[in-house]
Amino acid sequence: MNALLDASITDGWILWTLTALAIVAVIWLVVSRSWMASLVTAAISLAVALGSTLLIRWYVNSIWKPFADPIPDQVYVWISVAIFGLVAAIRRLTIGTGVTVRVLSVLTAAVVALAVAAHVNSHFGEYPTLRVALDLRDYPTVDLADIAHTSTVPLDQWRKPSDLPTGGSVGEAEIPGATSHFDARPAKVYLPPAYFAQPRPILPVLVLLAGQPGAPVDWLTGGQLVQTMDAYAASHNGLTPVVIMADATGSELANPLCMDSALGNVATYLTTDVAAWAARALQVDSDRTRWAVGGLSYGGTCALQLTTNFPLMYPTFIDMSGQIEPTLGSRQETVAAAFHGDSARFAAVNPADILRRERFPGVAGAFVVGADDHEYRTGLESIFSLAKSAGMDVRFSTVPGGHSFTVWSRGLRAQLPWLGARLGLDRQG
């Protein structure tokens, strides 16, 4: 059972088995004893699928605009396949007779829908396995309120005890927007094995931000954070940063641009409120040179925003597949919504503008992007050049793939040794 639950559903035999079953299902839904009836079913299904998909695409991209960037056309292709199967099933139900035909019509339509969902998930990689998709957690959880403060020692004086846990634990935290008044969703917090030692080493902090749409839990599902951190801890005496997966949007579809503006005081939340909560609730390093921020897509853009605007708070960052600038679709739309049309206020906090006019000799960062991410790669390369010219100690790397969790999970894993060294984890005695 574990082998099945942990098998990949983004590629491999499960995905292609579903695809084969969906092809058989579509053939069964379309083909009947009469070739004319089959032709009519195919024609009606195709016409409705294409028309509906074009209408949905127009509405989402031109009217609703829930995302700053358009949904990939590949996703709309799969949506049209789902609609085709649904229409064909409805027609099969109307012209067919008998309970068996009706049950098979419903089941085959469900198979097509499941295969479509699997392929859409394969594009983004948010649910890499059945275990993740079914929310069957395979990592320990902990109530943060039950973890008492204990004696601490500097990292370079700490020694690994013999009874240290083999893996970390994840807790959930309500981090109030006491100063920012930003209404954030609960954060997720990864505590490495070393956090449960007595005495406890003073550990660095990594704040991780999700994309848009997205939520903090995305780092535990598609981001595979626990697996990545546990693997690093296994070869570093149980040490990793304490990871705070904070909310930077407020809801799944919101886009407050990760700045203080008319859309919300997100920057203040991620600097002042998160830091204040960590000082109260956790025993972590208060030295800001031991703090880092990272994120994927919107979260990557946000990470660079925080570093360029608050370099003393976040002097280390990881920008994975971030945008060339925070956006709601265009510079004009963004400035209008966030700053009531005041472009100077936007330029004052926009990373690209800041990098052109200021120097950051004490800042270090990593830029990561999918090799096939044609939507974001050029912009990230441009921002990398600006960061380098502004005196940042930056690195740029590509990971096989597009704009997906496959890239982001691998990207974090690849950058963790550099990050650990930067945050002082290699100085443990």
How would you explain this protein's 3D organization?
With 429 residues, the chain is α/β, with parallel strands linked by helices. The model has no long low-confidence stretch (mean pLDDT 94). The strands form three sheets. It has an eight-stranded mixed sheet with strand order 2-3-6-5-9-10-11-12, sandwiched between helices. Strands 1-4 form a two-stranded parallel ribbon. It has 14 helices and twelve strands. It folds into two domains: 2-124, no CATH class; 139-427, Alpha/Beta hydrolase fold, catalytic domain (Rossmann fold, 3-Layer(aba) Sandwich), CATH 3.40.50. Helix 13 (377-389) links the parallel strand 11 (364-370) and strand 12 (393-399). It has helices at residues 2-5, 13-30, 35-64, 73-95, 99-124, 130-133, 225-234, 266-281, 298-309, 331-339, 343-349, 351-357, 377-389, 405-422; strands spanning 152-153, 169-173, 187-191, 200-201, 205-209, 242-246, 260-261, 264-265, 291-296, 316-320, 364-370, 393-399.
Tell me, what is the CATH class of the largest domain?
A: Alpha Beta
Q: Would you identify the CATH H-level superfamily of the largest domain?
A: Alpha/Beta hydrolase fold, catalytic domain
User: Could you say which structural class the secondary elements and strand pairing correspond to?
Assistant: alpha/beta
- Return the CATH architecture of the largest domain: 3-Layer(aba) Sandwich
- The number of helical runs is 14
The amount of beta strand, in percent, is: 5-15%
Q: Which percent bin holds the helix content?
A: 40-55%
Number of domains: 2
> What is the strand arrangement across the widest sheet?
2-3-6-5-9-10-11-12
SSE succession: HHHHHHEEEEEHEEEHEHEHHHEHEH
